[in-house]
Amino acid sequence: MAFGRLERDKGAVPMSDINMTPLIDVMLVLVVIFIITAPLLASSIRLDLPKTSAATPSEAPRFITLVVDKAGLVYLNDKPASPPQLALALSQIAAQNADTEVQLRADAAVPYGRVVEVMGVAQKAGLNRIGFVADNTP
After folding, report:
1. Is residue 121 part of a domain?
2. Which among 31, 59, 65, 137 is most buried, taking Cβ atoms within 10 Å?
3. Computed from CA positions of residues 25, 27, 31, 33, in that sequence, does the dihedral angle turn out positive or negative?
4. DSSP assignment string, 18-37
5. 10-residue block means of pLDDT along the chain (138 residues)?
6. Which structural domain range is residue 88 located in?
7. In a domain, 45, yes or no
8. Which residues on neighbouring strands pair with residue 102, listed in sequence order?
9. CA torsion angle 121 124 126 131 (round to 10)
């Protein structure tokens, strides 16, 4: 050590590598968000399905979905359909494959008569395999 002079250290050298830890943390959070929200996007029509413990999901090779909401409006594969459009679309589907299953989802507040009307349209079109979809929680 010299008199009157202080020695200086060279100090820390700047790091030239990218720190991957924050990037990985952000990506894992995004994956968790997508895993949680993906099942919620399956059906865009909000229904209050009747509850039963006997309902089990069926595995059909080919099916269509008919939904009757609280207002009594009918949706074919999540698209609104008027009664004439519904009859025409179901007739075309039955002409392609008569074994197509109709999965009927109706809100608990829908009158039984409206559900029977929709079933009748499907049967007139030639689709006789009709399954009712219900919530599995008691």
Report:
1. yes
2. 65
3. positive
4. ---HHHHHHHHHHHHHHHHH
5. 67 80 93 86 73 63 86 90 92 89 91 92 91 80
6. 63-132
7. no
8. 64, 130
9. 40
pTM of this structure: 0.55
User: What CATH number has the domain bearing residue 108?
Assistant: 3.30.420.270
Residue 72 · residue 106 · CB < 8 Å: no
Nearest in space to 99 (alpha carbons), one of 135, 59, 63: 63
First to last CA, the chain: 84
113 within domain boundaries: yes
Determine the Cα–Cα distance for residues 133 and 80; give it in Å rounded to an integer: 19
* pLDDT of 138: 63
Q: Which residues pair with 3 in a beta bridge?
A: none
Pairing of strands 130-132, 101-106: parallel
In a domain, 138, yes or no: no
Query: 97 and 61 in contact (C-beta within 8 Å)?
Result: no
